[in-house]
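Re: folding output
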Amino acid sequence: MKYLISCCLLLLVILGLTICLKRAEAVKKEDPFTTLSLEDRQKLAVVYHDSAKYFRQGGEMNEAFRDTAIMLDANNAEILFEESVWKLKTGNYVEQMKYLNKAVELSPIDHLGYRGHFKLVLLRDYRGAIRDLERLDSLTPGVVDYAWAEHARYQIGLAKKQLGDYEGAIVEIDRYIADITAEQGEDWADVYAFMYRGICNRELGNKEEAMKDMEKMIHYCESCPEAYYWKGILLVDRGEQTAACRMFQKAWDLRGQIKTDAYHELFDELHKDDINKKIDQYCVGMD
């Protein structure tokens, strides 16, 4: 019973302080926590930050608790990072980067990977992504780094591919596949790594290597329409129109399995219209 009363009193104190803070903000008063020691400010910042989750995300009280946590301790990397994630959800990239950059400054090993991933897939800042991910790698010698649950070297490879550095991209993708193979086996690698490597090989004129990549993708993912589509492209390069047509038709049959992402377009994302155009172009008059 005493514990329950203590919790209720703490909540009332927090609510009271928050209301005071909102009023202070309205009349542009100074920080009401200036009398607290640095240690107490840091502890109270965590309390406010953790308490924000009890209010509707994006609501006035939720925002007030988050803002108060940052006011109390503007050097807490985790609080700043989570604020950046919220700004990302609202589409405010300017504010998102402000908080994320500060989090990286305070704790680079913890947050460089996320920033590099964000630059790669959302901002399409490929050189910035490479800088962040290379820096992360340099800070963690002997460690296989992951950026937002994806292998950092793989993401560097994708960034280099998008910049047209196909040889550099292949080096990085090879390194990623080798790491995964050593840890868990090649079948644990992202099957799209073979597709991206195949695309790079095709751009470099390494058509046989590219075909091996697409065959390997099919081996590990028989239901991936992208593999058949790109194999069809390579068969067209060879002049094997009939065989290419069969691949495009297979890709069409599997069109419901096309890989997409709810938040951004994937690199070389396949669309149904892409397959349709190839079928119209190479399957006319064929059974």
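--- second protein (sequence, then structure) ---
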Amino acid sequence: MSSDPTIVPARRSGKGDPEADEAVYAALHAAILEGRIAAGTKLAETPLAEAFGVSRERIRKVLHRLVAERRLEAVPNRGVRVPQPTLDDVRAIYQAHRVLEAGVLRELAEKLDDRLLGELRMHVGQEQRAAMERDRAASVRLSGAFHLRIADALGNAQLSAMLRDLLTRSSIMVSVYESIAESFCGVQEHGAIVEALARHDVERAIALSGDHFRLVEARLQLRPQPPKVDVARLFGPIGEAGGEEPVRS
């Protein structure tokens, strides 16, 4: 059986089937993170229910969960869609990233120890493995987790919450607007930040962090209109969806 999370066996599940809920959630979540569904694409309940072989009620429940996580957005009278950030949205989010992380790194430099440095280097190693395996969903997840690890090290719950909110929004921007060919560039940039911290060169670390966020922003390619998505092909049963290319513009 395929391990592709975007492929779910076609079967009708009972109402109280958490395993089916998680399978549908995992498939949709992975497709969003991997950029398989373009920004602005509407996700209608009926075609998704038919593609997954589950009820509309189950699809609605999963879509509401993804909206709550800000992976999708609910538009009044228009249903649920993949977020479609504007250029102004992108600029504002990445400016906020640069400003917030500059302060975090300055504070972190005063408490950096061998244990934390080792954890950061290990994390960069995980990012490198994801890049080598061309695992885009893992790469997007680990990239965000790198910045969270730095902020969480300060033990300031308010700072961590602010960063989590930013990352929820910027990870979607990366997923839907960054080309697959450039999805794995950030790992070298993260590694350079860690090594600057290891040399106790906080000003260099801050400069590298700012450059990193500017490069990520520059790699985003905003698209004016989403292409139509064939959900039966993208999420269909095993034997129908296997081996298909990502649906992108």
